[in-house]
């Protein structure tokens, strides 16, 4: 009673009157779009896909890999930092710990000595973790740090790396690195560990 009931009316006819000018307008718009597309493609090359609804997948992949590479220095030490705080060959000769230094036979395990008292496993992980691909479960499992804090082996550590190549790179880049104002001595670990312990003891005497 309150609202009026809508009255059913027959079919209405809707007509569109299109003038002949519109196609030319559309043409201008399409030209503008083409220009915009050109701008977008130049922007895409500069900004790796910025401003495009569907950027090229290759540029996206590149960005991701670049980001991953950039993450290395934040989680682990950067090569620049290693080089900056590493002793030169001439400086090493002044330290008795580098006297008669021999890198040893290459293998995937390295031996680190002359470590400062305050060195912790996380410090060694920060340095040697850069030689491990943590996305690979196998490499993650092979990465192993044993830091000796007591007894005769105090100030020494063994670091297991995924392969010989990684160990050789770690030895080359980290030997002579000043950690807590003490230069690290990095060598390849010998397989006969007890023999190594006694020879280390003799060397110290």
What would your notes on this structure say?
The structure is a single chain. This protein has 205 residues and is an alpha+beta fold. It has a domain at 79-188: 2-Layer Sandwich (Alpha-Beta Plaits). Helices cover 45% and strands 11% of the residues. It has eight helices and six strands. It has helices at 22-47, 57-75, 79-84, 89-93, 121-128, 137-142, 164-174, 193-204, and strands at 109-113, 144-148, 156-160, 178-179, 182-183, 185-188. The strands form two sheets. A four-stranded antiparallel beta sheet has the order 2-3-1-6. It has a two-stranded antiparallel ribbon with strand order 4-5. A hairpin with a 2-residue loop joins strand 4 and strand 5 (182-183). It is rod-shaped.
Give the gist of this structure.
With 205 residues, the protein is of the alpha+beta class. It is 45% helix and 11% strand. The model is unreliable at 59-73 and 192-205 (pLDDT under 50).
Q: Topology of this protein?
A:
Layout: H1 22-47, H2 57-75, H3 79-84, H4 89-93, E1 109-113, H5 121-128, H6 137-142, E2 144-148, E3 156-160, H7 164-174, E4 178-179, E5 182-183, E6 185-188, H8 193-204
Antiparallel strand pairs: 1-3, 1-6, 2-3, 4-5
Keywords: Nucleus, Repeat, RNA-binding
InterPro entries: Nucleotide-bd_a/b_plait_sf, RBD_domain_sf, RBM41/RNPC3, RRM_dom
Pfam families: RRM_1
């Amino acid at each position: 009673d309150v609202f009026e009931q809508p009255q059913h009316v027959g079919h209405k006819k809707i007509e569109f009157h299109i003038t002949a000018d519109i196609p030319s307008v559309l043409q201008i718009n399409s030209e503008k779009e083409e220009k915009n597309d050109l701008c977008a493609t130049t922007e895409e090359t500069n900004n790796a896909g910025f401003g495009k609804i569907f950027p090229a997948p290759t540029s996206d992949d590149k960005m991701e890999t670049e980001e991953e590479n950039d993450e290395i220095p934040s989680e682990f030490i950067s090569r620049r930092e290693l080089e900056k705080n590493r002793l030169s060959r001439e400086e090493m000769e002044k330290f008795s710990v580098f006297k008669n230094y021999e890198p040893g036979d290459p293998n995937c395990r390295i031996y680190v000595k002359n470590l400062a008292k305050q060195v912790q496993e996380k410090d060694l992980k920060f340095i040697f973790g850069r030689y491990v691909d943590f996305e690979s479960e196998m490499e993650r499992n092979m990465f192993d740090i044993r830091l000796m804090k007591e007894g005769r082996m105090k100030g020494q550590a063994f670091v297991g790396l995924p392969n010989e190549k990684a160990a050789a790179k770690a030895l080359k880049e980290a030997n002579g690195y000043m950690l807590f104002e003490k230069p690290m001595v990095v060598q390849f670990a010998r397989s006969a560990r007890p023999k190594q312990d006694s020879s280390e003891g003799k060397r110290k005497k």
